[in-house]
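Weekly modeling sync, notes
Attendees: S.R. (lead), two postdocs, one rotation student

Agenda item 3: backlog of single-chain predictions. S.R. asked that every request posted to the team notebook include the full sequence so nobody has to chase files. The rotation student volunteered to paste the first one in as an example of the format we agreed on. Action items at the bottom.

Example entry:
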Amino acid sequence: MVEAAGGGASELQAIDIVALDVGDIISITDWFVIASGTNVRQVRRIAEQVEEAVKLAGGDGPLRIEGLEDSLWVLMDFGPFVVHVFHEETRAFYDIERLWSDVPRFNFVERQAD
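Predicted structure, as returned to the notebook:
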């Protein structure tokens, strides 16, 4: 399902899509999928597309979604994986990938930030 989430983000031209294997570090989930959009409208659409892609792949919808209203940082908890869809400026500010820089990562083939 991690691949489906990353693929869904890629379908809407998300930037810098990465999956981080955090299962050995934290107990609440196994993976973080992180992606960015260039504006709040795109961030919201990416989050909606991720949910749809996971469901089409046979997965369940998210257990919880936070941040969809302002769409600067949308967190989608699917249980085994958590999706973070950021506005690119918000992602740069929080830089959560730095916190998990020592875990295995998978970079999806997609558009890179300019």
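Discussion: group reviewed the output briefly. The helical segments are 2-11, 40-56, 88-94, 96-99.
Action items: rotation student to repeat for the remaining queue; S.R. to check formatting next week.
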